[in-house]
Amino acid sequence: MKVKFKIMIIYLLISIFIISSISSFAVDKCDEIQVFFKNITFKLNNKNIKLSEKPFIYKNRIFVPLRFISEKLGFKVYWNNKKNIISISTIEDFPEADYINGEKFIYGEILKIDRKNKKLNIYQHIDDNSASTESNLKISNDIKIIFQRNDKKMNLDFKDLKIGDNVGIILNKEGLIRGIIVGS
């Protein structure tokens, strides 16, 4: 009986050790901090902005919600949960053409713009990187348009496109334009 009891105690201690080891590896290091909340007013261009979360003071520095402030300033904020990376960008970019899933990349020059029906008519420039497609193309509802010159980029609206613009276009698998890069 004593041997069984000792084996049970050893088994229990080993189990507790394993469980506590696993849980300590599973949780990132956490520190407890003391912060101070004050009635802090946030102004942007001399206008009071109501914050989504209360700012606080820690070690004589004011902390505000990064996403809220960045988006108010016109930036896009992306959070990669797997890698713990925050990316802030002045433009809303789009991924390259996914050829495996039926997307195409084409080059061309805008010949006609039908703003009412959200269509472009292009003259295609065929090369080794460009697929052939029809010249009348429909715009998807969630299109992203980027103007790029050298290493500078900015987002444009559909209304900013002009006849004669040289463009790189990504067509989704349904044949709708999901992304346009306007070059100079």
UniProtKB/TrEMBL annotation:
Gene3D superfamilies: Copper amine oxidase-like, N-terminal domain (3.30.457.10)
Entry superkingdom: Bacteria
Classification via SUPFAM superfamilies: Copper amine oxidase, domain N
Domain Copper amine oxidase-like N-terminal residues, every copy: 31-88
InterPro entries listed in its UniProt record: Cu_amine_oxidase-like_N, Mao_N_sf
Signal peptide positions on this chain: none
Protein name: Copper amine oxidase N-terminal domain-containing protein
Species annotation: Caminicella sporogenes DSM 14501
